[in-house]
Amino acid sequence: MSAAEVDSTLAVPARETTADDETTAAGNSRLDGMRAVLTRASWMWDNGQVLTCAFVENPGNAIQQSKVISIAKEWERYANIKLDFESTTKNPEEAIIRISFSVPGLGTWSHIGKTALAETRGRATMGLGQVYPHSANANPDERESEEGDKLKLKEKEAIEFFKSVMFPPWTEEDTRRFFLDVYNQREVSNYSSVDLTSIMMYFMPAELNEQGIEVPSNYELSALDKAFAFLNYPFFGGPTSDASRTLDNALDTIGVTGKFRESITAEFNENDWRGVRAEFVRWALNAKAEASKEEAVAEREAEAGFRVQTDS
């Protein structure tokens, strides 16, 4: 089943700032993406973990719950993790993942991975409601398109857009909190590059970015979604329920080659999921670092060219 009926936007916790963050933006932006890779890795569940799930507070009706369950179960085909919606039916407050249907207009939100464990017992760790975007997957105020271009948001247009399409209308504060500020989180996933076909992406009308590029709504898991799920939560001793999802397939899809591919494969052959995840994170860190370096070099060259033109 597709995810068309139920949105699944992930709210991104605000990044803590330190004195180091007050230094040059260019230098820190290169580090932020790498920090985020490590942070996201620390939020992941253990491989093969059973996560009890239940509906709390505004639990929705049976049809809504059934749709949520069927969509959530789709991840089990590609990630070695179990979503258990049965064990805590009678005591939903004890579930690890507690789902509520939010008041319309408040948006859809969720704790990410193990951050759900910090929520007060019995309170929702995920809210599903009327929402415009899908979910934050990358550095959104400078998002790369499939062609490598950056999508730079138009703040004024975004504020007017959400005021007109949300009910009740979003204020400027709402838009900044739930859309623009979320986009200002640097590189909030461990994807090495942005996948516009990912189910984790926001829909974005062309008029909300400088390039005039529309980011489509995605209601199916992309090839990269499946590959990343498999490598972060690998199946050993056999394929996933999708016969095409194998280690080699996942590595090919993501583009892992050379020494990183060899090290991930070696850990996989030892049935060591922690080793697979650690080596995959090491690859992601390297990919982030290389991409950030190329971007910084290009910016310096462009700035130098601008100065030459100005001086002449």
TrEMBL record:
Stretches the record annotates as Disordered: 1-26
Gene Ontology MF terms in the entry: metallopeptidase activity
Protein's name according to its UniProt entry: Uncharacterized protein
